[in-house]
Amino acid sequence: MTNYTSSLLQTLDERGYIHQTTDAEGLDALAAKQIVPAYIGFDATASSLHVGNLVSIMLLRRVQQAGHKPIVVMGGGTTKIGDPSGKDDVRKMLTEDDIASNIKSIQSTFERFLTFGDGPTDAILVNNDDWLGKLGYIELLRDVGRHFTVNRMLTFDSVKLRLDREQPLTFIEFNYMILQAYDFLELARRHGCRLQLGGSDQWGNIVNGMELARRIDGTELFGVTTPLITKADGSKMGKSVDGAIWLNDNMLSSYDYWQFWRNTDDRDVGKFLRLFTDVPLDEIARLEALEGAEINTAKLALANAATALCHGEEAAQQAEATAQATFAGGGLGEDLPKVSVAQTDMPITDLLVTIGFAASKGEAKRLIKGGGVKIDGDKVADEKLLLSPTSEERKLSVGKKKHGIITAN
Q1: Which of 30, 182, 244, 340 could cysteine-pair with 50, CB 3.0–4.6 Å?
Q2: Could you tell me which residues are annotated as the binding site for ATP?
């Protein structure tokens, strides 16, 4: 731990957010004496953000908790280009209507984590298409492009890794770093922004923006990056065996979100409590010291706190109650996914696909052959089983973690 004087860097350091800083001493001094507007950009490539974006959202939350001003930058302009950072393939191009729809859908997530308003430390949300969309190509080349050398741009990981793997990097993607650098310059001009935060893969883009602002306006800016957040098994944060862990509840139920956190590896509980919840550090120290079966207490605390932040206290409590009824009491919780058997018999394979426990009938058959499918605790052995409508609800399970309810119309 470093002895910072500002509550901003103290908090980021204590909770494990800091990987690199451009000028820690200068930023610490600035944050100790005045409100520092800080931004993170989010491209609108989908209608929801996912857990992989959560460390960035929590960073902005920490900025506000420390008495500073968070700026959420939606990439209405940069999404049209596509950030090559960490990508092996060219991004799919979205229409302007797609991007606008995604931004509208994503906005509600930030409102759960941040306080928006007109006050000095209230968060604001801006769209970089407001300035990038008005930027002429010749103007960009003349006023901004001349501050970048191709030699330097080729050294950045986002470009270098693609070229080393002999994977295509389009000219439009090559220009992404120039546009992101210009974002930092515009945010400094429009909102007095002094700090950009981001993942470790954004280091080059952040430094570019700082240098551009210094050369054009003589403004001193700062950057902080977070370490790559991985799970104890080495896998990337934000993914599960079933796909992305979305933050919008219309794409992933609050119960499944709660289960994601409840199933955290024992080795990750302390780290995730620090990064993704507001649980006090002394309580986290107590929880992560628990051993054996008691570590489940810490996992419950993580699941409840993380879900409450994203979906609200009531959703967290309901998810825990559903899990308790399903796993401990052998009952059926209200939040479990449901599938209805119509008036005619329904093949078990169709039912598994309909409820989302198998991607295809072939996968459903493999699950049954492997002995992983149960109805009311009884193993299903026949892959041709037909289920008849019944007035009683039954529990459908796949493995130890997937549970649903079979109902009748």
Answers
A1: 244
A2: 239
pLDDT of residue 151: 78
Edge to edge, the sheet with strand 37-42 lists 20-21, 222-226, 195-199, 37-42, 69-74, 124-127
- DSSP H or E run through 115: none
8 Å CB contact between 162 and 84: yes
What pTM does this model have?
0.79
Q: Which two tokens stand for residue 174?
A: 């090559």
DSSP 236: B
Instruction: Give the separation between CA 231 and CA 261, rounded to whole angstroms.
Output: 12
Residue 271 Cα distances to 7, 19, 112, 275, 277, angstroms: 20, 14, 22, 6, 10
What beta strand segments (E) does 34-182 contain?
37-42, 69-74, 124-127
Q: Give me the domains of the chain, ranges plus CATH numbers.
A: 7-226 (3.40.50.620), 253-328 (1.10.240.10), 338-408 (3.10.290.10)
Binding annotation? 39, 176, 180, 239
Phi-psi region of 195 (alpha: psi -120 to 50; beta: other; left: phi over 0): beta
d(CA 132, CA 136): 9
3-state DSSP assignment of residue 41: strand
pLDDT band at 88 (very low <50, low <70, confident <90, very high): very low
Binding annotation for L-tyrosine: 39, 176, 180
308: tokens are: 């409450």
Q: Which residues contact 256 (CB under 8 A, 6 or more apart)?
A: none
Kind of pairing between the strands at 386-387 and 338-341: unpaired
SS3 313: helix
Phi, psi of 226 (to 5 degrees): -100, 155
Distance between CA atoms of residues 345 and 393, nearest Å: 15
| DSSP strands (E only) in 63-120 | 69-74
Per-residue pLDDT, 9: 98
The conformation of residue 219, written as its DSSP 8-state character, comes to -
Cα angle 246, 364, 372 (rounded to 5 degrees) comes to 90
Residue with tokens 């984590």: 113
